[in-house]
Amino acid sequence: MDKIKLDSFVDVYLIGSLSSLNIRLDHTDKKSVSVVKKNIGIELPSAQKALERNGLTLCFVSDDEYLLLNEKKQNESLLNKFKKQMNLTTGVAENTSDLRVWFLIKGDQALNALKKGVPINLEKLQISETNFLRTKLGEIQINILFKSYNEILVSVLRSHKEYMIDWFEVCTKRGTEINFDF
Amino acid sequence: MSSRLPRGGSRVNREKLVDFRFNGKNLKGFDGDTVASALLANNELLVARSFKYHRPRGIFTAGEEEPNALMGIGEGSFFEPNIRATEVKIKQNMNVNSQNHWPSLRFDFLSINNLLARFFAAGFYYKTFIWPRAAWKYIFEPMIRRASGLGKAPKEYDEEHYEHIYHNTDILIIGGGLAGITAAKALRDRGLSVMLCEKDSVMGGRYLQDCKSEDRERYKKLYESSIEILKKSKDIAVKLNTCVTGIFDHGFVLAYEENQGLNVTTKKALWKIRVKNIILCTGAIERPIVFPDNDLPGIMLAASARDYLQKYGVLLGDRLVLTTNNDYAYKTAIELKQVGIDVPVVLDARASSDGPLVKEAGALGIRILFGKCIGKVEGKRKVDAVGICSVNGEGTIEELISCNAVAVSGGWTPNVNLWSHCGGKLIWDGDLGFYRPDPDKTPVGKDGETNMLALGGCAGVFSNYDIQDQVPRKINQFASRLKIKSKRYIEPNIFSKELERNAPPVFVLPYGASKDKQKRMYIDFQNDVKVSDLQLAAQEGFENVEHAKRYTTLGMATDQGKTSSINGIYVLSQSLGKSVDTIGHTTFRPPYKPIPLGLIAGQYTKKLFKPIKKTPIDKWNSINNAIWEPVADWRRAYAYPKVNENLEDTLHREVLSVRKNVGLLDSSTLGKIMVKGPDAGQFLDLIYTNMMSSLKTGKCRYGLMCNEAGFVFDDGVVARLNEQTFLCHTTSGGADRVYAWFEEWLQTEWHHLKVFIINLTEQYSQIAIAGPKAREVLQTFKSIDLSPDKLPFMHFMETYIDDIWVRVYRISFSGELSYELAVNSNQAEELWNKLLKAGKKYKIQPYGTEALHILRAEKGFIVVGDETDGTVTPQDLGMEWIVSKKKNDFIGKKAFSLPHLNARVRKQLVGILTLDTDKVLPDGCHALEDGKAIGHVTSTYFSPTLKRSIALGLIENGRSRIGSALEFESSSKESIFAKLVDPSFYDMEGSKQNG
Amino acid sequence: MLYLFCPICRRDCDETELSCGGQAHLIRRDHTSSDKDFYRYLYERKNDKGIIFERWRHVYGCGKWFHTARCTITNQVFGSYSAKDALPPKSLLAKIRSSRVDFKGWIK
Question: Which of B10, B219, B778, B811 lies at a CB distance of 3.0 to 4.6 Å from B211, suitable for a disulfide?
Answer without folding.
Answer: B219
